[in-house]
Amino acid sequence: MLDPRFILENVELVQENCDIRGVKADVARYAALETKRRELQQEVEELSRKANEVSKSIGKAKDDAEREARKEEGRALREQKDDKQSEIDTIVAEATTIYSHIPNMTHPDSPRGGEEDSRELRRGAVEVPKMSFPVQDHVELGEQHKLIDLEGGARIAGHGFYFLQNEAVLLELALQQFAVEYLMKEGFIPTITPDLARGEIVQGVGFVPRGPETQIYSVENFDLNLVATAEITLGGLYAGQVIDEEDLPIKLCGISHCYRTEAGAAGRQSRGLYRVHQFTKIEMFAFTTPEQSEDMHNYFCDLECGLFDELGIPYRVIDIATGDLGGPAYRKFDLEAWMPGRGHGGEYGEVTSTSNCTDYQARRLNIRYKTKGEKGTNFVHTLNGTAIAVSRALIAIMENCQHADGSIMVPEVLQKWVGKERIGAIDTDDE
C-alpha cells in the first residue's frame, strides 16, 4: 500500500498512476473520506475529553439536581461521541476498500500501455535453434519417453495436475540443485518454506486469499492458504519486525511448491506443463533499503539471465507495460524462453519474472529497518524474482534440446545430477 499522506498530498499523480495501470480507484473520493475521518477523529477525541471531565465533576456536585444534570450532560456527550464514531466506521470501511485497490507507483521507465506495449530489453547468449525436422512439443516428447503422465494426474486431482516420471524427476531435482547452488554462490540464504500461510500474510504480500478474484487455494475451516509462490512466505518472514540497516540487504533463496487455481486458463498455449495447478519453484527474495532496491532489481534480472544462459536456452527479457503490472510491482521484468513446440512454429513463453515492490508490501506487513544512531524507523523495500519455475523450465529444456529422433540432450550443467547426457535413443543420421 502507499503512504496515506503521500496520497493526500498527490491526489492527481496517484489517480494518473491508477489510470495508466488500468486500475479503477477514485483517489479523490479516498482523499475526501480520509480528510473527513481525521476531522471526525479529532471531534471524537474532544467529546471523549469533555465526557471524562464531566464524569470527574459529578462527585463535586452541590446537590442531587446538579448531579443528575451532570450525568445527563455526560450521557449526551457519550452519545454524540458514539454517533461520530459510527460515522467514522462507515467512512473507514469505504476508504479502506478504495485504499486497498490503489496500486504501487510506477517506475518512470516502465512502458505505458497494455500487454502489447511491453518492451524487449535484451536477448540471451544462445540463438533460437534451427530445426530441420518436425518439432514435437513437450507433451509429445513426454509421452514418447514416459516423462509426464497428465492423464494420471487428472484421475487423481483433476485437470492441471500431473505425474513426473523417470528422467523428468531427475531433471526436476537437478534444476533445484542447480539453482540453489548458483544462488548460494551469490550469497543467498537457502530456505525451504512452508507451503501454507495465514490470510493476513497472503493479503499483505498482495494476493487475494478469498473471493471470486482469488488464484489461491484456501483450507476450509482454517485461516490457512496454499501458497502460490514462496514470495508469500519469504515476504512474510519478517512481518512486524524491525531489521538493523547494517544487516541489509538480506537475500533469500526459497524452495517451495506453488499452488494456483489458474481459473479461466485454457487453450493450446496453456497445455501440458505450461499452466498447471502445482509446481516447484526456486524463488529469490530480498529486503533492502530504498537506495539499494533498483540495483537489486537489475541484479535479480541478471541472475535469471545467467541461469538460462548456463542452461543453454534462448530467451528474451521484457520490460512489462503499466497495464500488465500487478498491484505491488513498481517495475517488472519477464524472462521469456523460446519454446519450439509452442503455437505454430515456436513462440516465446514466460518462464521467470522479477519485480521491485519498493515499500508497498513492507507497509502492509509492517517490516521496517532502523539506522544506528538515528531515531525512528523506515520501511524496507522488497524484491522478488523467479530463479527456476521447474515446470516451465522443463518445457524449455525438452523442446529446445530435442533431436530428430525425439531424444533430448540434457544441459551440460545438469548432467552431473541427472547422470546421463541424453534422454532417449540416438539417431546417427541426426548427428
UniProtKB/TrEMBL annotation:
Class of this enzyme: ligase
Boundaries of every Aminoacyl-transfer RNA synthetases class-II family profile domain copy: 137-411
E.C. designation(s): 6.1.1.11
Keywords: Aminoacyl-tRNA synthetase, ATP-binding, Cytoplasm, Ligase, Nucleotide-binding, Protein biosynthesis
Superkingdom of the organism of origin: Bacteria
Site (Important for serine binding): T386
Keyword Amino-acid biosynthesis on entry: no
Binding annotation for ATP: R260, T261, E262, V276, H277, Q278, F279, E350, V351, T352, S353
Keyword tRNA processing in record: no
Region feature Disordered, mapped onto this chain: 50-87, 99-120
Basic and acidic residues bias (residue ranges): 60-87, 109-120
BP GO annotations: seryl-tRNA aminoacylation
Pfam families linked to this entry: Seryl_tRNA_N, tRNA-synt_2b
Any one Gene Ontology cellular component term annotated for this protein: cytoplasm
GO molecular function: ATP binding; serine-tRNA ligase activity
Residue numbers binding L-serine: T229, R260, E283, N384
UniProt name for this protein: Serine--tRNA ligase
Organism: Aeoliella mucimassa
